[in-house]
Design brief:
The complex is a heterodimer of chains A (448) and B (70).
Chain A: H1 4-9, H2 28-33, H3 39-46, H4 58-70, H5 82-90, E1 96-101, H6 111-118, H7 120-134, E2 136-144, H8 148-163, E3 170-176, H9 185-192, E4 216-220, H10 221-238, E5 249-256, E6 262-267, H11 272-278, E7 286-291, E8 297-300, H12 310-313, E9 324-329, H13 334-347, H14 354-372, H15 379-389, H16 398-412, H17 414-423, H18 427-430
Parallel strand pairs in A: 1-2, 1-4, 2-3, 5-9
Antiparallel strand pairs in A: 5-6, 7-8, 7-9
Helix pairs in contact in A: 4-5, 4-7, 4-10, 6-7, 7-10, 13-14, 13-16, 14-15, 14-16, 15-16
Chain B: E1 5-9, H1 19-23, E2 28-30, E3 36-38, E4 42-43, H2 48-57, E5 63-67
Antiparallel strand pairs in B: 1-4, 1-5, 2-3
The chains are: A alpha/beta (448), B alpha+beta (70).
């Protein structure tokens, strides 16, 4: 049975080449069958999760060690070492809590939705294994309220597990308000505690005091699925692909002007051009890619041989981020696309911190004026000053991401900026449908 | 010797009236909207009293002097 959620997020898929052992780990079942895995499929394919008998036992400690030896990092954007997070919570002791971050609020990303749709039990295995490793008795899975089909599917998967008496911990599904910043780990914790799904800036940190004042581990969907595979196959297997510094595979959402839009699994370290080839290649001459997501960076075409790793992308001011790769062709206007994304990000500020609440709309407005060819003489210097002042000035990283995107657009499309300043908007700016679908730039209706 | 101190602004609590920037201009600039821009988080010994006074004067108790992480 094909689920509507799975077909919705990945209308087409493309299996990796047979000589590419890296391309099929999380998605091997999907590549083989094209169908979401039921619990029976999952158990047949992967076997039962190696669940330790009691919290804090030696078996569970070895999972943290295995994850550390594997070198798994968070696949949510920040890239923090997963073992360090596990340890920080485990070492606090007492009853702890695990939160599965399935919010995926990044509009250009589909990978977590897709993975949860096609391999729900791999994700849930990971959450349960993590719970046992850190001494948690409860797992909260947080989904956006807007994805009702996905919520139904997840509830069905949880029922299946309950009937099979698979898990020694309790699992609960929650439907949260869906703003861009609601996927911040502190937003999830605040909402689970009865508050608004808005980021919480100040200490204590989530791993010190989170849900119900207990030490709380928050991981996203993809990270937990990798963890579930490491628990079965060990760190040596995990390191068979990727780079020594950044091992393993990662999910990428390819969009824009590529032949096959959708979710791919690639080895870390794969050159960007090779990732695009896996997505069928660009459909038009490529000008730049938006890498990482709305809080990511534009990378001009000449950098397409760069390997997809944090280390190789950092000197270019970019990062794999949420695994978003959106292709901008020559016929599109990067300034217009950026202006629309910035308007969306400005509308989705949680309006708690002045620099973000006032700074983002100001930057977005100037960008809209620049894209439309209505710039005043001070616009460019004002934009540079403000994007320089935004990072590190909010309770969360929202303004940092928006500033990074704006600054990268000014760099990547410097020629266009000059042209727009001197002659007004280029014909491409107004005369085509948007390349990157951006949700309406309206403020979230509710945070609760 | 007292341990080194570091400035931190609680961004959610701060409403940007800029008092801190006036009391501690050596370490705090204000942006065009009156919100603090910390030039240097670490508080030199000579400015410790000033910094403590600025933190105490913040009407929203949004400016903090933390023990410095190394
Ligand atoms: S930085 Fe922006 S999005 Fe983040 S908490 Fe502050 S106002 Fe909200
Ligand atoms: S005095 Fe307090 S509230 Fe006012 S700007 Fe400084 S930190 Fe913010």
């Amino acid at each position: 049975m094909k689920s509507s959620a799975a077909t919705h997020v990945a209308p087409q898929h493309r299996a990796p080449q047979p000589d590419d052992p890296a391309g099929a780990r999380l998605l091997s079942g999907w590549y083989a069958t094209g169908a979401p895995a039921t619990l029976a499929d999952h158990l047949r394919r992967h076997g039962p999760a190696p669940v330790a008998p009691a919290p804090g036992s030696r078996t569970s400690m070895s999972l943290v060690e295995a994850v550390e030896a594997a070198g798994l990092t968070g696949r949510g954007g920040a890239g923090f070492p997963t073992a360090r997070k596990l340890r920080a919570v485990a070492e606090r002791g007492g009853r702890t809590v695990v939160v599965v971050n399935a919010m995926e609020s990044e509009p250009a990303s589909r990978k977590d939705q897709f993975l949860l749709a096609v391999e729900p039990h791999l994700v849930l295995d990971g959450a349960v294994l993590a719970a046992i490793a850190v001494g948690a008795d409860t797992v909260h899975v947080c989904l956006p309220r807007t994805r009702t089909a996905q919520y139904r599917q997840l509830s069905a998967a949880l029922d299946e597990r309950r009937r099979a008496r698979l898990d020694p911990v309790r699992l609960h599904a929650h439907a949260l308000p869906h703003a861009y910043v609601s996927s911040e780990s502190t937003s999830l914790v605040r909402w689970l505690n009865g508050g608004p799904a808005r980021p919480q800036g100040s200490p204590p940190r989530t791993h010190e005091r989170g849900v119900a004042r207990r030490p709380t581990l928050v991981h996203n969907v993809e990270t937990l699925a990798h963890l579930a595979l490491i628990a079965r196959h060990g760190p040596g297997w995990f390191r068979q692909t990727g780079t020594p510094d950044e091992p393993g595979t990662t999910l990428v959402t390819a969009s824009g002007a590529v032949a096959t839009r959708g979710v791919l699994e690639v080895a870390l370290g794969t050159p960007l051009a090779a990732v695009l080839d896996r997505a069928g290649g660009p459909t038009q001459p490529l000008r730049a890619v938006l890498l990482g997501g709305f809080a990511g960076a534009w990378l001009p075409a000449e950098h397409m041989q760069t390997p997809l790793t944090r280390r190789d992308l950092a000197p270019l001011g970019a990062a794999p981020g949420a695994g978003v790769l959106a292709v901008l062709p020559h016929s599109a206007c990067g300034l217009t696309e950026t202006a629309r994304i910035l308007a969306y990000l400005a509308a989705h500020s949680a309006r708690q911190c002045g620099p973000c609440h006032l700074g983002l709309p100001a930057v977005a407005e100037d960008f809209a004026a620049l894209a439309a060819g209505r710039a005043d003489p001070d616009l460019l210097s004002r934009l540079h000053r403000r994007t320089g002042l935004l990072p590190d000035r909010g309770a969360c990283r929202h303004p940092d991401g928006a500033a990074r995107l704006a600054a990268s657009a000014l760099r990547a499309f410097a020629d266009d900026v000059d042209r727009h300043l001197a002659h007004g908007a280029c014909p491409a700016a107004g005369h085509r449908s948007p390349l990157i679908p951006v949700p309406p730039a309206t403020a979230p209706e509710t945070w609760r | 010797m007292t341990p080194a101190k570091a400035l931190r602004v609680d961004r959610i609590a701060c409403t940007g009236q800029g008092m801190c920037g006036e009391l501690l201009p050596e370490l705090i600039d204000l942006d065009e909207w009156g919100y603090p821009v910390i030039k240097d988080r670490s508080v030199p010994d000579g400015l410790r009293t000033h910094a403590r006074r600025a933190a105490a004067a913040c009407p929203l108790l949004a400016l903090h002097l933390d023990a410095r992480r190394t």
